[in-house]
Amino acid sequence: MSVRVLVDLEKCNLCMLCVEYCPAYVFSVSSGRITVDSSKCIECYGCIPLCPRSAIRIAVEPGDLTVFLKEK
Predict the structure, then answer these.
(1) In the 8-state DSSP scheme, what is residue 9?
(2) Average of pLDDT values for 21-26?
(3) In 31, 39, 40, 71, which residue has its Cα 20 to 30 A from 60's Cα atom?
(4) Is this structure's pTM higher than 0.90?
(5) What is the number of domains present in the chain?
(6) Does the pLDDT value for residue 56 go beyond 80?
(7) What is the chain's alpha carbon radius of gyration, rounded to the nearest angstrom?
(8) How far apart are alpha carbons 68 and 29 in whole angstroms?
(9) Residue 42 scores a pLDDT above 80
(10) Which letter does DSSP use for residue 39 in this model?
């Protein structure tokens, strides 16, 4: 199952907790804003409760959830 890590840039205040915490280095800062490389995500989801502004969420790629459910 592949996921997309999404950051609401209007909520993000660049506290850098996600950049410092993420064991897979999904988050970085470029041109004064958080950037995301979802392909690196190891799906630990630790970033979601870590964000004090609730700016991070995960989106399942279309079709992946259907495949996941059929495999069970």
Answers:
(1) T
(2) 97
(3) 31
(4) no
(5) 1
(6) yes
(7) 13
(8) 33
(9) yes
(10) G
Taken as a whole, the chain contains a residue count of 72
Pairwise CA distance, residues 50 & 31, whole Å: 23
Q: Are 26 and 5 in contact (CB under 8 A)?
A: yes
Residue 71 CA to residue 11 CA, distance in Å, equals 36
Domain that holds residue 65: 3-71
Instruction: Enter the tokens of residue 21.
Output: 């915490």
Provide the pLDDT confidence category of residue 3 given band limits of 50, 70 and 90: confident
| Mean pLDDT taken over the chain | 88
> What b/e sequence results for 3-34 when a residue is b if at least 16 CB atoms lie within 10 Å of its CB, and e otherwise?
eebebeeeeeeeeeebbeebeeebbeeeeeeb
